[in-house]
Amino acid sequence: MKETIASDSRPKRQEQVIVQKGSNDVLLFSMEDGSYYALNEVGNRIWELCDGTHEVAQLISILAKEYDAPAEMIATDIEEVLEDLRRKNLIVERGEDRMGADPRGAV
Predict the structure, then answer these.
(1) What dihedral do alpha carbons 39, 40, 45, 47 form, nearest 10°?
(2) At the fourth CATH level, which superfamily is domain 12-92?
(3) Per-residue pLDDT of the chain (107 residues; tens, 9 = 90+)
């Protein structure tokens, strides 16, 4: 069963990933398990924006403007890339702790 990435989550690149830029793509090397992952131009732009400060909805908006494409199409592509990066443990989600620092759960 495929999980959906929440539009308010903030994906963040894992620190244990080495990035190697090539002429047409970018290679990610996970030091954790030794696996490689290749990204095209759009995938690399998504990777760059996964800094833990941008919500998925913001990624969609940014890329829709940059590539002059419909947000619906961009959203599908972003969700696929993020899900793949998450499955390969190259990013982590930063949306689960939205309740704040108050241990009592007060808002």
Answers:
(1) -10
(2) Coenzyme PQQ synthesis protein D (PqqD) (1.10.10.1150)
(3) 455 678 889 999 999 999 999 888 999 999 988 899 999 999 999 999 999 999 999 999 999 999 999 999 999 999 999 999 999 999 998 754 333 333 333 33
